């Protein structure tokens, strides 16, 4: 599949691995893909992120991703569903951190053994890569670019999609920023 990726999309995937290494994460996640996309300059996705105002709010995006990690990676929908049955995730996080230390649910990497091997991609990150292929095919594009990765991040449920939506970047708004109103809805592949 990677032979169909543009140079920019490959750089995004490589950058995601670098983000995972810096965070001492055991695997590459959707979060790392999002952060790597935000690093890219001069691409269609960077244009869309700028149009939507995310380029100027990187600190806010990183803080929202950090808060989700602190909740053990639960999405807002997960948190709301649990609240609906009487489970207060904020209270659980506070109690767990009170006993085991701050950030324990975020998978703090400080005490884990470091290795220099290849990091696997999580199922969610693989899902983003697969979805980007379906988005590109749905748009009848020959190659997978960063814009397809960004659209896939907005379309696949999870923390990255939640954070993007919180910041005004939904599938529809990203598609409008990328392609204008004329092609809206043309290719949201499922």
Automatic annotation (TrEMBL):
**What's one GO BP annotation on this UniProt entry?**
proteolysis
Per the UniProt record, one Pfam family is Clp_N
**Keywords on this record?**
Hydrolase, Protease, Repeat
Residues covered by the Clp R domain:
2-185
For whether the record's keyword set contains Repeat, the answer is yes
State a single Gene Ontology molecular function: peptidase activity
Highest taxon listed in the record's lineage: Bacteria
Q: What is this protein called?
A: Clp protease N-terminal domain-containing protein
Q: Which organism is it from?
A: Streptomyces atroolivaceus
Taxonomic placement: Bacteria, Bacillati, Actinomycetota, Actinomycetes, Kitasatosporales
């Amino acid at each position: 599949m990677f032979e169909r990726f543009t140079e920019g999309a490959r750089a995004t995937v490589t950058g995601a691995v670098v983000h995972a290494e810096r965070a001492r994460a055991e695997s590459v996640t959707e979060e790392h893909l999002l952060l790597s996309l935000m690093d890219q300059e001069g691409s269609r996705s960077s244009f869309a992120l700028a149009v939507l105002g995310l380029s100027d709010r990187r600190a806010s995006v990183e803080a929202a991703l950090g808060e989700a990690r602190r909740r053990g990676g639960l999405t807002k929908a997960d948190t709301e569903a649990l609240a609906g049955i009487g489970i207060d995730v904020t209270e659980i996080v506070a109690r767990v951190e009170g006993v085991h230390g701050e950030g324990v649910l975020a998978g703090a990497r400080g005490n884990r053994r470091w290795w220099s091997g290849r990091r696997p991609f999580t199922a969610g990150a693989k899902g983003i890569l697969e979805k980007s292929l379906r988005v590109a095919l749905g748009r009848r594009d020959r190659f997978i670019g960063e814009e397809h990765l960004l659209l896939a991040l907005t379309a696949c449920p999870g923390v990255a999609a939640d954070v993007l939506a919180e910041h005004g970047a939904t599938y529809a708004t990203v598609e409008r920023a990328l392609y204008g109103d004329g092609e809206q809805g043309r290719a949201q592949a499922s």
